[in-house]
Write a structure and sequence with these properties.
This protein is about 25% helix and about 20% strand. The chain is α+β, with helices and mostly antiparallel strands and about 90 residues long. InterPro entries: Mannose-6-P_Isomerase (IPR016305), PMI_typeI_cat (IPR046457), RmlC-like_jellyroll (IPR014710), RmlC_Cupin_sf (IPR011051).
């Protein structure tokens, strides 16, 4: 199992940091929180705008998946290739 550093996205429709589950999760995951920003989404995956990083190495999850493509399984590879395009909102 890989421990990931995931990033939060700030959008105007998000919740204030103090009441946002996204901000709480991001902070628990090691991110600093800007109390003046709304928090809307926690992105976990290989999206190039906000990629997850592997905690132990600091390298992008996409790089690890490229080196270990079987980790995704055949059905996922057939549909998405060697990426993990899921966003948890």
């Amino acid at each position: 199992m890989l421990s990931l550093q995931c990033q939060a996205q700030n959008y105007g429709w998000g919740r204030p940091a103090g009441t946002s589950e996204v901000a709480k999760l991001a902070q628990l995951n090691g991110s600093s929180i800007d109390e003046s920003q709304p928090y809307a989404e926690l992105w976990m995956g290989t999206h190039p705008n906000c990629p997850s990083m592997i905690c132990t190495t600091g390298s992008p999850l996409a790089q690890w998946i490229e080196a270990h493509p079987d980790c995704l399984g055949l059905k996922v590879q057939q549909r998405f290739g060697r990426s993990l395009p899921f966003l948890f909102k």
